[in-house]
Amino acid sequence: MSNQTMIKDLVVVGAGIVGASVAYHTARAGAAVTLVEAGRPGGGVTRDSFAWIGSAGVRTGVAAELRMAATDEYRRLEAELPGLPVTWSGSLSWRSSGSAPEAGPGEEIVGGDVAAKLEPNLRQPPDWAVWASADGSVDAVGVIERLITGARDHGAQVHLDTPVTALRRDATGRVSGVETAAGSLTGDAVVLAAAVATAELAAPVGIEVPVSPSPATLFRFRAPAGLVHRVVNTEHFDLRQVAPDRLVAAADAAEPTLAAIRSTFRGADTVELLSARVGERPMPADGEPIIGPVAESPGLYLAVMHAAVTLGPAVGRLVAQELVGGTNEPLLAGCRFDRF
């Protein structure tokens, strides 16, 4: 697939947040889209994402500009899809020792008095904290459901509980669809957005995608209403309140995390662990997204990355511009498969 080819009929494999975003944006751009998912929308790693949306502090890496655009892209998507489950709380980060870092883009270094106003239940406000007022968080599965509804509204066909067994190739060797247990699905191109399964699906056509599972644990806690007000990041946890009586935390171990929550917040003595789930994040070998066409396998386009919830809206829009609009998007230049 050349950068100037305009694709009008495509198959998107994977209904995590990246695949759902690609399906929505390409359908909205006028393509005939088929979205196929082995299970339920967001039933893979997405449901175990901490789902912190932030652009603050981003400075380096080939995807830095993509990450810097994350909050703006979510606000755009929120305007396009009313009811998108986004909470714009801002984030507050600190460490118990060391001097305050230099503020990055979109960040402000604040003292303990300000930190105490932002998080009024802190037992001992830190000497300094990094305040990113534009940050937010999402209900990632809810975002996927809204994206899929939007894709359907623009004519996309959605096949759930339909595992893809192989990529199809035509007589010229071009990828022209997928095989599933329910039959063949055809298109002018296939977007593989299947997280860690992307490598397995690409291997039979001779493409080695350097992505592997990176375990991460998400803990859910019962908690008093209004205990935590922002996305809170410390050396012990990433923490946020997702319902009046629920917290979620991304952390390493249950008991130390529970102890840290109780020691950090007044009124947290009754916080109790409800569940712990380990998700397998798709981690490219260099930690950066892999997005774009595969020259060795015409018709195949890859979209696999870590921080998928953060990057999903931007990636979906840019992939649609490349596939349906025939453009070559500069923001994706450093994310190409041919760098490996």
Task: Name the average pLDDT.
Answer: 95
Distance N terminus to C terminus?
A: 19 Å
**CATH top-level class of the largest domain:** Alpha Beta
> Number of domains in the coordinates?
2
Q: What is the level-2 CATH architecture name of the largest domain?
A: 3-Layer(bba) Sandwich
Outline type: elongated
Strand content: 25-35%
H and E string: EHEEHHEEEHEEHEEEEEHEEEEHEEEH
Q: Could you tell me the number of beta strands?
A: 20
Biggest sheet descriptor: 8 strands, mixed
Helix-strand makeup class: alpha+beta
Question: Within the largest sheet, what's the order of strands?
Answer: 6-7-5-15-16-17-14-18
Q: What is this structure, in a nutshell?
A:
This protein is α+β, with helices and mostly antiparallel strands and 340 residues long. The longest helix has 16 residues. Helix 1 runs parallel beside helix 5.
What does this structure look like?
It comes from Microlunatus parietis. It holds the Pfam family DAO. InterPro entries: FAD-dep_OxRdtase (IPR006076), FAD/NAD-bd_sf (IPR036188). The chain is 24% helix and 29% strand. The protein is of the alpha+beta class and 340 residues long. The chain folds into two domains: 9-81 and 139-210 and 285-339, FAD/NAD(P)-binding domain, CATH 3.50.50; 91-133 and 214-281, D-Amino Acid Oxidase, subunit A, domain 2 (D-Amino Acid Oxidase, Chain A, domain 2). The strands form four sheets. It has an eight-stranded mixed sheet.
